[in-house]
Specification:
about 300 residues; two-stranded antiparallel sheet; mainly alpha
Length: about 300
């Protein structure tokens, strides 16, 4: 039996505030129940602090957590707000890479344990193909459609991964997708996404005579400086469809959104840890990051193996 989600959306609008689950929302509930999880992430306990800015960040974190498990995409929106504010705080004027580079550079020397850093890098190795394919598509689009916006995006890619990466990437993959049928294009974009996923897994990948994937901070920057802000900008400008209430939504999309949300949650917890060290137990934070990696692997074993 085919379910008409278009009619369901109209019914949901007309019946609001009554609530009922769309088919994909039921799939999410069943996935979590199968593994006895209430949400796709575990949380880290924090202590009270009278600082106003501290509580402003905590409020955004709460908004993000309240969107789980149903809408990790909306969770990310709330979690990104204080990350962006922290990037602005750390920004050094007239420095190449701007606030995004300043944030990653600060994480190199911030007063957090190496265990926290290592757990963050281990989580990044689980970047699902869907998220990496998104990065690949946006890089290729930016190269193929030069302009002010594209150049700003590519500048972040160069700082994050390497000066030659975007051009090397486009040289290999653009000729394989321009003018070809949709099924061929889709297959090649998956290959391009797989290349980025291998980079995120720390595998040294050669492209155009250059090696990529050697620097864990570069892999972090691929997402914190390139993917995450671009997702946020697209959502802000309405360039997305609420596909959690769509018939085309698949679990690979949920895995990607959960990865983005969990990464943002990890980053903002790290901000709390180095700015208010008495409020976050770093050993507990390290355990939380490890638990979230393990939970992500359990929930999305099938998607990670794709």
């Amino acid at each position: 039996m085919t379910i008409n989600t278009k009619s369901m959306r109209i019914d949901a609008m007309n019946m609001w505030p009554a609530k009922f689950q769309f088919p994909f929302e039921r799939d999410i509930s069943e996935l979590l129940a199968k593994h006895n999880f209430m949400t796709p992430i575990t949380t880290c306990r924090i202590k009270n602090n009278d600082d106003h800015e501290y509580h402003r960040i905590v409020s955004s974190i709460l908004d993000g957590l309240d969107s789980l498990p149903e809408r990790p995409d909306r969770s990310f929106e709330s979690l990104w707000i204080p990350i962006d504010v922290e990037m602005e705080r750390l920004k050094v004027p007239n420095v190449r890479g701007g606030k995004f580079k300043a944030f990653v550079d600060h994480l190199r020397t911030a007063e957090i344990t190496n265990g926290i850093r290592n757990q963050l890098f281990l989580f990044l190795e689980n970047a699902p193909l869907q998220a990496c394919e998104y990065a690949a598509i946006r890089i290729l689009e930016a190269i193929d459609n030069p302009g002010e916006h594209s150049e700003g995006y590519l500048a972040r890619v160069r700082v994050a991964v390497g000066t030659d990466f975007a051009q090397d990437f486009a040289t290999k993959y653009l000729p394989r997708i321009k003018g070809y049928p949709a099924d061929v294009v889709a297959a090649e974009l998956r290959k391009a996404g797989s290349f980025i996923r291998n980079v995120m897994r720390g595998r040294v990948m050669t492209l155009g005579g250059h090696n990529y994937g050697t620097d864990p901070y570069g892999r972090l920057a691929m997402f914190s400086s390139v993917v995450l802000p671009n997702i946020r900008n697209e959502r802000f400008h309405g360039n997305v469809f609420s596909s959690y209430r769509s018939s085309v939504r698949e679990m690979k999309h949920y895995a990607s959104d959960c990865f983005i949300s969990a990464l943002a949650y990890s980053l903002i917890l790290i901000v709390l840890a180095y700015r208010w060290p008495d409020a976050v137990d770093q050993a507990e934070l390290e355990n939380t990051l490890q638990s979230n990696t393990e939970r992500f692997q359990i929930l999305f074993r099938q998607q990670l193996g794709a």
